[in-house]
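[retry 2/3] RagB/SusD domain-containing protein: previous attempt timed out, resubmitting with same input.
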Amino acid sequence: MKKILYTVMAFALLIGNTSCSEDELDPTVSQEKDFNSSINTEEDLEGILAGAYNRLSIETYYGRDYIVFNEVRSDNAFSNANSNRFVTAGQLEVLPSDAYPTDTWFRIYSVIGSANIIINAENIEGDAAYINQMKGEALVLRAMAHFDLVRLFGQQHVTGGTSPGGVPYVTTFRDEENFFPARNTVEEVKNLAIADIDAALAIMSPGLDGSKEFITTSAANAIKARIALYFGDMTTAATAAKAVIDSQNFSVASESDFASTFSTDNAVNSIFEIAMSPTDNRGINGLANIFLNTSYGDVVVLDNFLTIFDDDDIRIGEDFIEVDGAGFTRNIGKYPSSTFDDNISIIRYEEVILTYAEAMLTVDPAVSLQYLNMIPAQRNASLYTEATLDNILLERRKELAFEGARFHDLVRTGQGIPLIDELQQTHKGVPYGSFNLAFPIPNSEVDVNSNVSQNKGF
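[retry 2/3] RagB/SusD domain-containing protein: success.
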């Protein structure tokens, strides 16, 4: 099912319930919007859920910005300011008044708002198992969205950060007793997100799992493993990752097929992806146009990045990397289509394999090495002789480059952002603990919600 169907389903709901406008489904964290429509049937829930998936695809969330933020703030890429995009993000000097924090904060909370409508809907007519499946998908979306917020805006990596340092974990669409929720602690956000996914898995059924363009039980476990790994909960990460592996629904993409997986919908290694279609996509504002040599083309690969690979590793071969006429190194393998209709991978099986390798590192190094080597074995790269954290992080950097993982891998392991090229990078190196490792809370939120304090340093 392609994203065009997301839009059709949402449009059908809006036609059927004329009091339910697009604006009313886009709450900010302060939940100012009114919602008076009656949600009575499984078709009503389908429409709201379609809207939530569609909001994931907007360029201010996974359609572009959330992925790019975590590449230009790392040692993988930089902004060359070709169209003046992602300059302040690459400098790690984003301001509370900037569009980047404002738009992304609003977009992610709009996903949460849609999810909350579904989760809290009662007395819905229709097939009970299918309704539970949709509620489970919404619970996972809510968990993932709050996790993404705390990774961007939380101060868990900032020395002396403002307490409590997390983000508001919003669980109702419009709570008249809590219009302006306060920030939860980072630990609370983590625990609530894991609890939401556990609640989802308790009501979802693998037999009802469908396209990889929707949350499945495997996607729920993969996202749970990602959250647990980020917070260093290796037991939970290992259990969740192993559940995905044991499903036997996925495989590491082969050397010959790997490049094509980024232009193939529902590929063998895809666990959850955002649908794009020829008629419904982000167009010139999407990921392809920001990475490729185009009129935008602001995100450029750091020259140093190529030195971490074996010479014949396919991940720096002609299917993935090219040097343009201006001498800039470009990512051309991921989000490759000039027609902008490639689905966007949110989580791949290869990430789960590397998560399991890291989670097993101190438990069983032999098993860790076995899973670590599953990736280079299919990339025409040298195998590792030892499983170490450095080797696992190196392989994650190689495999997940330009997918938004690198910044988080650096900071979750207590590292700052290294300065490796004074001419290309503009942040001059950012040590671990710096307030600039977190985005500021947008002024548009702080100014209307006195319960939300600004982050340290802004």
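[retry 2/3] RagB/SusD domain-containing protein: The chain has 15 helices and six strands.
[retry 2/3] clearing retry counter.
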